[in-house]
Amino acid sequence: MIVDLTRCQGYGQCAFLAPGVFAMHGGEALLYDPDADEAQRENVLRAAAACPVQAIHVDRMATQHPGMRTGPAAPAPVGDGDGFRKTGRIVIVGASLAGARAAGVLRRDGFTGSLTLIGEESYEPYDRPPLSKQVLAGRVPEDHTLLPRLREVDAEWLAGTRAAGLDLAAKKVTLGDGRDVPFDRVLIATGARARPWPNPAEAALEGVLPLRTMEEAARLRELLAAGPRRVLVIGAGFTGSEVASVCRDLDLPVTVAERGPAPLVSALGAVIGAVAADVQRDHGVDLRCGVTVEALEGGADGRVRAARLSDGSTVEADVAVVALGAVRNVEWLRDSGLAAGVWGVACDAGCRAVDINGLVTDDVFVAGDVARFPHPVYNYQFMTLEHWGNAVAQAEIAAHNMISDQAHRWAHLALPVFWSNQFGINIKSVGVPTFADEVVIVQGSLAERRFVAVYGYRGRVTAAVTFDQAMWLGFYEGLIERAAPFPPDFRGVDRNEEMRPVPAEVPEHINATEVTVVVTGHDPAERRARLVHHDI
Q1: DSSP 8-state symbol, 48
Q2: pLDDT digits (tens, 9 = 90+) for 473-516
Q3: Which residues pair with 166 in a beta bridge?
């Protein structure tokens, strides 16, 4: 079972119908066991049927994105396209959420050719969001996060296998062990990994770890269960804030060190970040903003003991969680000829990869955290999104387009939707909050920490963020899609009559510097782009 929390609006019927599986934490934050005991099956089925937004999927993930089918694909046209569906070779590199979802959609929509999935992890695909919530808190074991029924997809699974290179001319993926896997079309879904602590010796100290994989979640849960004197969380993004929330739920002392002015500023801006800071401090978090961790110190036993901060202070801690963001897995594409760099692999709105000359490829597709794509709603800015909903939606678009002709391909136009459960509050957003110059509280109040914040850019609505008001998100999604005027003007429940837009205070965009593009050749027909990498 899996709950699509991008759709869940916190009504809580499931918690009444299957209380042994679902639970509401705080206001609208839903917690659940993804692999409940078989004895709970009837209760779960009743809860799924009663869900007002049909967010609960049992046994397999259903397509739930606007404008897409929920049933089998239409019959393929007779001709070359039909031949590829029957005998083509598709390779998917990356067997996490996006890769696994694409594999399922390919088979569902009539692709009967050769299908190979290459995954570096030895596990079957699993769901990452529960790791920093249910698993870390000890509510469910880590092996309960496997994605439903994906093991039944008819495909060759190369688990525990690393992709080492991509040869576009020869149409083959080279594996770490030297083998080659040929393809007619390939999907790049290698995602991202946690950014490691930059000092290898300090990162090797016992008790220092990031949180992204199943093993890391299991290890961190063991460390927290042992009752450390204090936990240090380095970084106050969504992952760091969720870890701090779990620590306080377990009544563990926790210090959060954040280089920015407040938690969540990089994603939601300083106005909402200030609210998040107050929430953390009210729950007993020792929150220190505007500082960085300069060094981690270990004892004679090789365990982390303390951290030195940039303000000259020292924090004694037995556990240090490194929550410094993600690194996209593109190193294996370095000499492939694709436009791949620190921000991901460039592609068009149909998920087709772009090469270093800026040309769109026909046989290479990209989906998930590693994809860098243009969104028309945001002035065709290229963006990468580490969102569960984006990985699922983009994988479905990519899979459809891989087996469709040009006239029947779709564009990935879904608005980004993100959620986080922390300190008993359900935080959800739609759109891109950092693409804004102003923000206004249109419903509820910051003081009550139950509100809707709407973001605007040059007089139009571009995003919305809710604190325990998830049922309103669909309405504001419609405003974004229609480019409604900002600030919005409408009559509604719990409307803030004194709403006044204020500067959004979002961080400035940082340009990547690890690749330089050099144009070579003299004749117009011979000019080519070449990437010059700067190792940093």
Answers
A1: H
A2: 999 999 999 999 999 988 777 777 777 899 999 887 655 556 66
A3: 173
What are the phi and psi torsion angles at 440 (to 5°)? -140, 140
Q: Could you read off the pLDDT of 58-108 as tens digits, one per residue? A: 865 544 333 333 334 444 443 345 689 999 999 999 999 999 999 999 998
- 103 and 61 Cβ atoms separated by less than 8 Å: no
Token pair belonging to 319 = 């556990």
Strands (E), 132-258: 156-159, 163-167, 172-175, 180-182, 185-188, 192-194, 208-210, 231-234, 254-258
d(CA 93, CA 190): 6
How far is the C-alpha of 343 from the C-alpha of 330, rounded, in Å? 9
- The label of the residue with tokens 């119908």 reads 17
CB 467 within 8 A of CB 459: no
Between CA 397 and CA 196 the distance in angstroms is 32
List the one residue out of 190, 181, 188, 63 whose CA is nearest residue 114. 181
CA 107 to CA 117: how far, in whole Å?
13
**Model-level pTM?**
0.88
Give the pair of three-digit tokens for residue 133. 């919530």
**CA nearest to 318, candidates 298, 338, 294:** 298
Q: What is the mean pLDDT of residues 439-453?
A: 93
Q: Convert the pLDDT of each residue in 335-356 to its tens digit.
A: 999 999 999 999 999 999 999 9
Q: Is 270 helix (H, G, I), strand (E, B) or coil?
A: helix
Q: Which residues contact 305 (CB under 8 A, 6 or more apart)?
A: 297, 298, 299, 316, 317, 318
Name the helix (H) or strand (E) containing 249. helix 238-249
Q: How much is the average pLDDT of 429-436? A: 94
